[in-house]
Amino acid sequence: MAEEHYEGKKRKVQLEEITRCPECGSTHLIRDYQRGELICGDCGVVIDDNYIDMGPEWRAFDSEQGEKRARTGAPMTFTIHDKGLSTEIGWKNKDSYGKSIPTRNRAQLYRLRKWQRRIRVSNATERNLAFALSELERMSSGIGLPRNVRETAAMIYRKAVNKNLIRGRSIEGVVAASLYAACRQCGVPRTLDEIAAASRVGRKEIGRTYRFMTRELGLKLMPTSPKDYISRFCSELKLSGEVQTKAVEILKQAEEQELTSGRGPTGVAAAAIYIASILCNERRTQREVADVAGVTEVTIRNRYKELTEKLGIDVDI
């Protein structure tokens, strides 16, 4: 291995020393990285046909240069049924040199493209994954989930498929449950109602499937904290950072006195935001906070009374 490394470095030094064409003496040398050739720009002689990529020539300073000089495909991802490793015949009717394919050969290209699409999905498991993961992408886009949550959800769904947990359950239900579990695992909280609104299955079915999957797959997920919802709810209500900080302080005091245990995290978070908005003179109505948090006004009133009484907060309404 050391000898190969030494030979590679030695060859690189030798090629860097070539500054003139050995035939005509010209200094106009062209480095063709696609073909791996070092060519004289004046007389056209190929000086080296196994040219090494030196690195700095590949630097890209904008997206267009990056596309032209890209040497690799997309990274491996669990959100595609074949992990993005299979090839795909592009829709452009051009060959590897960028030349247009003659009209007489286009029928053959269409046929190859069609069969390539077909053989990418070879068995029932892959067909299931192809449908489920496309559904997962649709739902994730609908509720604006980041890439790491999508990857985690795809991984959880694959584990469920390998353990044969989807038998007798709808694909959409298992996908929605995987997405909810991934949100909990990655600390990006979404309520069951939000997941149900993005999917085509009911809240009750998603909850039932989620509990079954966590038990069978051994997923250890901590309960959601009300603090996790504060930043998102404040952002949707267009409240300042001061209100957000105050709401977090209220929740911290409530946790110390164990006022949050046994209560829905969204309701407690909504009540804390409601109190903080009044204290910071950026008041929002109970109706507005309830719509954003996905709870009822009655829930906010009950949690609000508990927090103000137990924490001794004087709120002037």
Structural features, described:
The protein has 317 residues and is mostly helical. Helices cover 55% and strands 3% of the residues. It folds into three domains: 2-58, N-terminal domain of TfIIb, CATH 2.20.25; 124-217, Cyclin-like (Cyclin A, domain 1); 227-311, Cyclin-like (Cyclin A, domain 1). It has 13 helices and three strands; from the N terminus they run αβββαααααααααααα. The chain has a three-stranded antiparallel beta sheet, with no helix packed on it. It is elongated. The termini are far apart. The model has no long low-confidence stretch (mean pLDDT 83).
Quick structural overview:
The chain has 13 helices and 3 strands; from the N terminus they run αβββαααααααααααα. The protein has 317 residues and is mostly helical. 23% of the residues are buried.
Sketch the major β-sheet: 3 strands, antiparallel
Q: Percent of residues in beta strands? A: under 5%
| Name given to the CATH architecture of the largest domain | Orthogonal Bundle
Mean model confidence by pLDDT: 83
Lateral strand order in the biggest sheet? 1-2-3
Computed over alpha carbons, the radius of gyration is 30 Å
Number of DSSP strands?
3
Span between termini: 77 Å
Low-pLDDT runs of 5+ residues are: none
- The helix content is 40-55%
* Domain unit count: 3
Shape: elongated
Q: How many H/I helices?
A: 13
- Alpha-beta content class: mainly alpha
CATH superfamily membership of the largest domain: Cyclin-like
The CATH topology label of the largest domain is Cyclin A, domain 1
